[in-house]
Design goal:
The complex is a heterodimer of chains A (421) and B (180). With 421 residues, chain A is mainly α. Chain A has a two-stranded antiparallel ribbon with strand order 1-2. In chain A, strands 3-4 form a two-stranded antiparallel sheet. Chain B has 180 residues and is of the alpha+beta class. In chain B, the strands form three sheets. Chain B has a four-stranded antiparallel beta sheet with strand order 5-6-7-8, with no helix packed on it. In chain B, strands 1-10-9 form a three-stranded antiparallel beta sheet, with no helix packed on it. Chain B starts with a helix and ends with a strand. Classes of the chains: A mainly alpha (421), B alpha+beta (180).
Chain lengths: 421, 180
Amino acid sequence: MSEHSTYTPGNPFSKWLDDRLPIIRFSKEHLLDYPTPKNLNYWWTFGAILVVMLVIQIVTGIILAMHYTPNIAMAFDSVELLRRDVNSGRVLQAAHAVGASMFFVAVYIHIFRGLFFGSYKSPREVLWILGVLLFVLMITTAFMGYVLPWGQMSFWAATVITNIIGAVPFVGESVLQLLRGGFAVGNPTLNRFFSLHYLLPFIIAAVVVLHIWALHVPGNNNPTGVDVKSTRDTVPFHPYITMKDLYAVVLFMIPFAWFVFFAPDILGHPDNYIMANSQVTPAHIVPEWYFLPFYAILRAVDFNILFIDSKLGGVIFFAGAIVVLFFVPWLDRSPVRSGLFRPLFKWFYALFVINFIGLAYLGAAPADGRVLGIDVPTFSKICTAYYFIYFLVILPILPRFETTRPLPASISENVLGKAHA
Amino acid sequence: MADQPTQVQHDGPTPSRRDFIYVASGAVGAVGVALVAWPLIDQLNPDASVKALASIEFDLSGIEEGQTLTIMWRGLPVFVRHRTADNITVAQNTPLTDLKDPEPDSARVKEGHEQWLIMIANCTHLGCIPVGDAGDFGGWFCPCHGSHYDTAGRVRKGPAPKNLVLPPYDFVSDTLVQIG
């Protein structure tokens, strides 16, 4: 966007400061005057919601750390003590645990918005890559945080997920021991996870800064996917977007508050209220809901592929499901950004969303169960296949067969045209 | 500058003395960084107290036929199974072609102690503890991802790639076993 500034220091002090550290000028340019497409819909408010969630997680997390003991003998009790005895502890712990879930709700909507409106396409590739990186950091942080209460699910999640590293040929076993600090998950593992769980949110915050920087260079995408052509297409960030985002944040806080106050444990598992026991695995272990689709992919590979055994195969697909996201800007060859103008893409995209939800459902189903009359492993294979086909086949090839609808000449024309119709 | 002939010499395509010093000091610096980084990484490895638990002795006399006990070795659960005669026959008569990770029953136990099956209890898929006397093959069933093991702890079905791992162990006497 335009780099020229409209800022004129109002008094001698701000003039003096502006010559030395132009922080007021910077804030005015990027937090107030930043030109934003005037047709953004509510799907675009999740960026701001995510920032709010990160702040909530950091604040509640720092407080929780004041009451938590990272030792396998005391961790479980310290969390229970926090919930029962510490003033407002019940609410603070619930806000942090539910907050993680709400954080993922927001990030999934944010990612799927980007996938539909082509927000990853040139010139926003770096913005997208940083976003995927943030998603990976979030997954890591959430996983380590889940281990800290040291319940049965915590312990077995730690065992199963660290075992994934053990699948890597040759070095896997040594890296696994390095990661756990022992031959099995134990006290050293809990200690380092606590340390890293405290560190990672600040790394996330730093990458968020880069993400927003990479956003402010090309500017926001918008529902039409058409570039901003003139100042008539934009509104200043403040007050138009700040107020809209704030309104969306307030709406988002309603289900969040409902969970915290009325059902703080509904998103978790009862097994996590049993202290970790390294000799017994709970009968039905499932990850937190936000990892289910990827867990289903991990589990779907129960056959050997040539010289790759089923375990390594599962890990390759599991990691591949996330790694493929980094390449989406180059996999999708359609020059049209927005799915609104792509009649065929819409259907494949809708199927992708349903498929992703289906994977989540399968991830939660018992390994020997049946869903819709099909056994879980087979159904998971079908859904896993579509997940990859969408990225590796449909996105690259679809543009050859698709006649896109005519794009509006500008955002203004699109907005005004709609009003007249 | 141009009137200094010694410098012109150094701009040629052959590496100069100065290039060598740059590369050499850079290389020494890199080695130094690696030396400093190593302890920062190595501290993550299992510490001495963890390694110290590497060997245990266990008395088998209390385990009834058909019973499985789970004991701890190096922080890992270990199954000690007193197999029934039936278990042993079934395991011995399984054709190797039926196996995902072919291993005869004799390779799973110590000769003369066929009734004792001692294995690390973590499923070779992702490390859950399989449930005993369950699954399609009369051995173990892992509830996490649905792997089935037979009465010799060999994987028969599901995502697990290998048979349950055998720890290094020896019989000190008929009823005393040393693991590790």
